[in-house]
Amino acid sequence: MARILGGIATSHTPTIGFAVDTDKEADPVWAPIFKDYEPVQKWLADKQPDVLFFIYNDHVTSFFFDHYSHFALGIGEEFPVADEGGGPRKLPAIKGHPVLAQHIATSLVADEFDLSYFQGKGLDHGVFSPLSLMWPHADGWPGAIVPLQVGVLEFPIPTARRCYALGRALRRAILSFPEDIKVAIVGTGGLAHQVHGERTGFNNTPWDMEFLDMLADRPQELLDITIAQYAERGGIEGAEVVMWLIMRGALSKEIKRIHQSYYLPSMTPICSVIYEESDATEGLDTIAAHKARADAELAGVENIAGSYPFTIDRSVKSFRINSFLHKIIVPSTRKRFLADEEGALADSELTEKEKDLIRRRDWRGLVQYGVIFFLLEKLAAAVGMTSQQVYAAMRGDTVEEFQATRNAQIVYSVAGDDPGKIERNDD
Ligand code: FE
Question: What is the DSSP code (8-state) at residue 284?
């Protein structure tokens, strides 16, 4: 079974990554940052976690307000460094852990946390700023990451109590993972700072110290503090510190605080903390029942004949081809595809098998491969086919045979009136 090694709390200010990239270690103003993280580096080197469960927020880099969610779980196979305006930092991409992510998702949903899932997105300084100082990466990262993006930028944001409850559920999720892996929980953000408006430059070190003591020993007392009170005491942007409560909630109730550092050179305190579990078995007695309850929700769904439920593992495996087909809704991409399909396929990163499935309009094969139906519908619309042609092909029927099973013999598609689209051919 998976084990939780402990938790790390860290600021994620871009200052840390900047210090790493510009080799500031010998500069006395910057040196404390490096010194403060040595215990974190050593702890990670000693404990050798296989996976870091990394709680962070994106800073309007990969997540925008066209669709903003509270808890977005990273399910992908790999996460590159995001470009935040001047090109991405020169760091290797880090592996994800889709199998663990799927298990955590199943467990958290059973515990009534409504997640969103992401892949194919870069991670910004919320992850890579502290990570680049914490974990060696000259020859690639020593382990994998499961990122959890918390939407703390658009109010209302998740409450302190909700974050802590999510952490408790996360503990059940990780401890019930059947593989024998070691997981460390990383909570990022904070501490007191504000970077906008006339209050720019606000800090509050006395509150930071109080918060750190409460987080370690009396986290319950942090749960009824409102977001407005966090913002008042710790700055509007500093209210992101509720993410640390997710990390704290995932640990045993009693913890050993083995490291704490705090340095405030400019706008944001650079703080790092390590908590070790004082009771790694806490909660294990209820794990079997929890896992049974979580697994029950989808038990047997894979046995429904002729059906291909779009699970996280299918979504990850077929992300490349689903992404290609999704771009058909972009007029310029669609136009290119329709004018020169072979050229568009050749320019893509699709495998030969994937290209062939699309080329042959193998509707059943595409679904079996992992393409979701609603992208077949789009491809069909673009190439002038009806939805009924797709339905019939998936069943192995002719259109006439399929239509005979319906109450009325109508045809339709999701195509609009793009003048570039291929005219519909009902045969
Ligand atoms: Fe942040």
Answer: G
Ligand 1 centroid–CA 151 distance in Å is 10
Query: How far away, in angstroms, is 46 Cα from ligand 1 center?
Result: 28
Q: Which residues are catalytic?
A: 125, 193
Mean pLDDT along residues 59-68: 98
What distance in angstroms lies between residue 199's CA and the mean position of ligand 1's atoms? 17
pLDDT tens for each residue of 303-362: 999 999 999 999 999 999 999 999 999 999 999 999 999 999 999 999 999 999 999 999
Instruction: Provide the pLDDT for residue 31.
Output: 97
* Nearest-angstrom CA–CA distance, 174 and 100: 8
To 5 degrees, how large is the angle CA 254–CA 258–CA 260? 110
Task: Compute, in angstroms, the gap from residue 141 CA to the centroid of ligand 1.
Answer: 23
Of 357, 280, 295, 287, give the one whose Cα is nearest residue 322: 357
Q: Give, rounded to a whole angstrom, the gap between the first and last alpha carbons of the chain.
A: 55
Whole-number Å distance, alpha carbon 357 to ligand 1 midpoint, is: 43
- Cα 114 to middle of ligand 1, angstroms: 22
DSSP per-residue string spanning 95-154 = E--HHHHHHHHHHHHHTT---EEE-S--B-HHHHHHHHHHS--BTB-SSEEEEEEE--SS
Residue-wise pLDDT for 363-400, tens only, equals: 999 999 999 999 999 999 999 999 999 999 999 999 99
pLDDT tier for residue 425 given thresholds of 50, 70 and 90? low
Q: Give, as residue ranges, everything with CB less than 5 Å from ion ligand 1.
A: 57, 189, 240
Packing angle, helices 14-21 and 31-47, rounded to 10: 90
Average pLDDT over residues 243-267: 97
Encoding tokens for residue 260? Answer: 């704490």
The reported pLDDT for the residue numbered 212 is: 98
pTM of the model: 0.96
CA 17-22-26 angle, 5° bins = 105
The answer to whether the CB of 212 falls within 8 A of the CB of 35 is no
